[in-house]
Amino acid sequence: MAEIKTENGTGGKARRRFLKGAVMGTAGVTAAVAMPNVSRAQTINLKMQGSWGAKSVFTDMAKQYVERVEKMAGGRVKIDYLPAGAVVKAFQVQDACHKGVLDAGHTVTAYWYGKNKAASLFGTGPVFGCNASQILAWIHFGGGKELYRELVQDKLRLNLVGFFTMPMPTQPLGWFKKKINNVDDMKGLKYRTVGLATDIMQGMGLKVTQLPGGEIMPALEKGVIEAFEFNNPTADSQFGAQDVSKHYHMGSYHQAAEFFEVIFNKRKYDEFPKEVQAILEYSAEAANTASYGYAMDLYSADLQKLINQSKVNVYRTDTSIMKAQLDSWDTVLERLNKDPFFKKVVDSQKAWSQRVAFYDLVNSADYKLAYEHYFPGKLPF
Questions:
Q1: Distance between CA atoms of 272 and 104, rounded to whole angstroms?
Q2: 191, 174 Cβ separation under 8 angstroms
Q3: Which of 8, 44, 93, 239 has its CB 3.0 to 4.6 Å from that of 105, i.e. a possible disulfide?
């Protein structure tokens, strides 16, 4: 049996060494709790420009993304966000990011679909029954993310990494000088839109001009256009649409599932630590909730202001017009599906929509019925 020394002997020394070590260990733990492990890496400073004016509601939404990045990064990432025109024009954001003139951008794919019309499928594509939230789900879980990367990096060889945020509510048919009762009332109109919506509206007999938001009102004043759509009641009223038109048609298939595209210069992005890359990516998902909630509050309130204060006539777009849009989509798809990559994206969205929209349409409550039950006579249709 081993000898046990007295406290003044070997056992006492060992116990004192143990207690001293325990105290030092406890102090270390206490220090770790008191001083959390803050990264000492140099702060990453990024210059990001949007495609929106300084006072645009979309600039507010871009800043919601920026705020989430900076807070989750704990000060390790700082983004200097700039409005359209600060460095480049609204339609030039992608090129500037690709070249490294900008580190990042906040835009939409419809603004660069001239490089490849498949770009518009990631924001202004055909409607097979899914809404914007469901197509955003396709991007994350149905193969859309991979197809977007293939388009941007493999086919176009752009030095970019991109993420999507904010499933936009259906964009209104737009603003007109008089009530539009049918397709014949639209034929020949000089109309503003962007992306594949250009092809759709041209197929319905309109004369279409593509313009960024900031150029809409000057074009209207000069007679370059005589009708237009932009996006929503808040953004439209910020342009002053209610001052030049009193006829606002809501409901359309031309842009029913769009999102913001947050892009980064790929060479710069690839140099970031993995945790910073994750923050930049997942902040886009976090901004979905913030921006959508913000939109529901503002868009609904501003629509009521347009009706009650600006005396705008708000209409639900006639079903015959939306059917004509679907027919025009069919013609456009028949032509553009000759491109194998374009067809691959369309087929992927169509397969997703057949399954997902089926579930949603079969399962969803009849919200219109409930609204009319509690607010009878309020709807304009």
A1: 13
A2: yes
A3: 93
